[in-house]
Design brief:
It is built from six helices and ten strands. It has 235 residues and is α/β, with parallel strands linked by helices. Strands 3-2-1-4-5 form a five-stranded mixed β-sheet, with helices on both faces. A five-stranded mixed β-sheet has the order 8-7-6-9-10. Belongs to the KAE1 / TsaD family. TsaB subfamily.
Length: 235
């Protein structure tokens, strides 16, 4: 099974090739430089793996949530490649990939829940809760909310059992409004990685959760705000 995975969710840009158990990845911090870097990185990772695009079984991409511009770049790139090679696409949650990556570099976390949070700007965070049993899907609906609303949700006891170990991952955890929470450990300095998107895509692929290139859509979680931005651009 060969999967080409791409992410431009935020300030980072990464491309990964999964070929059986072998994984190769290129990752760079490329704020506002995704468009120029992405396709050369794709060519480079395929060459490194001695693989042609036609030999890929599927493409995987972060569907969001995340930066409006970043998501559009990744989705558009994957759509173009999928059309050209006539390949299916596996959309993966960027929050799930963030949690999976944090768990990958912190094996001591085990299968305990990971609350992944990305900075959504406007004093809000994108967040979801991911367990070890089904790491591709949040235990609750992925949301965008003020930090105080996230605190209320986690303290309600409906998301995780009281007193159980849980972990926090992602740059969204910098907000002071999240201080009332007490995760077992917090890692803010982590990013969405294409290799984690690829690994989660493999699980989703095995469950038949893929789409055609034309059906691929980003998940912004902030559709109303996005629509207003589009209206301002068109005026």
């Amino acid at each position: 099974m060969k999967i080409l995975a791409i992410d431009t969710t935020s300030g980072a840009c990464s491309v990964a090739l999964l070929d059986g158990d072998a994984v190769s990845e290129q990752f760079v911090q490329a704020e506002r430089d995704h468009t120029r870097r992405l396709l050369p990185m794709v060519d480079s990772i395929l060459a490194e793996g001695e693989c042609k695009l036609s030999e890929i079984d599927a493409l995987a991409v972060s569907r969001g949530p995340g930066s409006f511009t970043g998501l559009r770049i990744a989705v558009s790139c994957v759509q173009g490649l999928a059309f050209a090679a006539d390949k299916p696409v596996v959309p993966v949650s960027s929050l799930a990939a963030l949690a999976s990556g944090a768990r990958r570099v912190s094996p001591g976390w085990g299968s305990s829940p990971v609350v992944a949070a990305l900075d959504a700007r406007m004093q809000e965070v994108y967040w979801g809760v991911y367990g070890g049993g089904d790491p591709a899907n949040s235990l609750v609906e992925e949301s965008v909310s003020a930090p105080e609303q996230l605190v209320t949700a986690l303290q309600s006891g409906q998301v995780m059992a009281a007193g159980a170990a849980w972990y926090a991952a992602g740059p969204g955890w910098h907000y002071p409004g999240l201080a009332p929470l007490s995760p077992t450990e917090t890692v803010q300095e982590c990013h969405v990685h294409a290799q984690d998107i690829g690994r989660l895509a493999l699980e989703l692929w095995q469950r038949g959760e893929m789409v055609s290139a034309e059906a691929l859509e980003p998940a912004y979680l902030r559709n109303e705000v996005t629509w207003k931005k589009r209206q301002r651009i068109r005026q």
